[in-house]
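The instructor's notes for this session suggest beginning with a concrete chain rather than abstract definitions. Hand out the sequence below and ask the class to guess, before any prediction is shown, which regions might be ordered.
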Amino acid sequence: MRLTRRLSLVLGLTQLIAWGTTFYLPAVILGVVTRDLGGSRTATVGALSWALIVAGTCAPRIGRWIDRRGGRGVLATSAVILAAGLGLLAAARGLSMWYVGWTVLGVGMALGLYDAAFATVGRLLGVGAGPVITGITLVAGFSSTVFWPSSTALVHLFGWRATLAIYAGVLLTVNLPVILWLVPKAGPMPPTPARARSGPGGRRRLTALTCLSGFFTLRWLITTAIAVYVLQLFHGLGLSRGHAVMAAALIGPGQVLGRVVDWSLDRRWRVLTRARLAAALMPLAVAVLVLGGPASVAVFAVLYGMSNGILSINRGTLPMAIFGPAGYAALLGWLAVPPLLAQAAAPSLGAAVVAALPALGVFLVAGGLGAVCFGLLLPLRIREVGP
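After discussion, reveal the predicted structure:
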């Protein structure tokens, strides 16, 4: 099997499991955990925000490590740490241990989610990493589709503590050996040109870093806030609870469709052009929602999902296209910090906006921010900065 195909399948599978056993877990177990531990729902879900802050704190150091030594050991370590974190959560008898478990998971998420996987591929393949990054997100994009129903079934059959123990076992028996056996070691780190060693410098490079960081930060803020409140917002638009769930379920297939579109356009459109298209889909989706009509919410969900799907690919491909392979993993680590902090703050910020505005007003705010994101991509150019 060619290395590119093997990495797409192997890292796609392990990312699917890693996301499903961490980021997508609270949506299923939050209610029962809150009742068992005796805290408030806000305090319980706040542990995920705390884990994202921890991940953001760790990300730059992990990126530098991958640049120097490659990512296979980092990804393998993540499987062990994530399993340990899940074990701590399963043993928690109060909120203090719950937060300790999520602290460990935050470290594991920094070691093992998209940024580390993309950095590993970039370290192995350099400028040829783009198709593999797309392949990884295509497979991992089904994480919520697989793990929300499976987690619901496992919690119903065995309880939430046993479910977490089962997932810890999956990480150790699937992710760990698959990474160690099928992800190759990185070769010696190539010499870094003097310009890259000097770090960010020059107005164009600083502008590119600022625009790229602002783009990812705003989009992950929007995406996380909508993910938390989407059912409430769709209900506020006049949909019944059942129809709101059905409309929200279209976001996932939309994400996969967006990744397929990005893959199909790979040889015809440059990565920055595809990123701008994806950014434009967000305000376009809100415009469809404003126009109304019986199908407007469904169309919004698909277009918004497509935008998000391509965004997850851009997180790995845009920095490579703009800055090149030298120092790529370390750059991803630094660029991960603001979006992770934005994700941590999104539920609280979103709660304030949702409380202050009607549902359509919330979507208009999101669309306006999406238009700002599109504007942040306009000054960027492919490989005009960096080594």
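Then share the key points. Residues 134 and 313 are 6 Å apart (CA to CA). The radius of gyration is 20 Å.
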